[in-house]
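Exam revision sheet. Question 4 asks you to relate a sequence to its structure. Input first:
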Amino acid sequence: MIAATYVIACLTFYAAFQRFGLVTRCMELLATFRAAALLISDDTLNEREKETRIREPAITALGQSVGLFTKTVAVLTAAGLPVALSMVVGLDLTRFMAFALSPVVLSATVVALFTLARLQRLKTG
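Answer key, structure tokens:
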């Protein structure tokens, strides 16, 4: 039951991570920060112009940050749901965590999720 719960939780995490587009959202937020940094470092603008022009990127970054945070919480909640449901039917959380945090299981999980992502990219072109 421990291994099955772990696999389901990992697959749920992967599906939610892909569905909510966390990598894309991070890249968009970084692009907004880069644009703001360019504005701030622009020597052709005076301080008042910089202040005026930085407002829009600042508001955009705030919205993107809030969106990224809520999507991350949703992904982690989705991944934790199979574990929570398994605990209701008797899963020992201490044994589950010992299994999930073992170096062999962590290594296998990273390899499996990386392979899954590569296969998905190859399939979509």
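Marking note for examiners. The chain has a mean pLDDT of 93.
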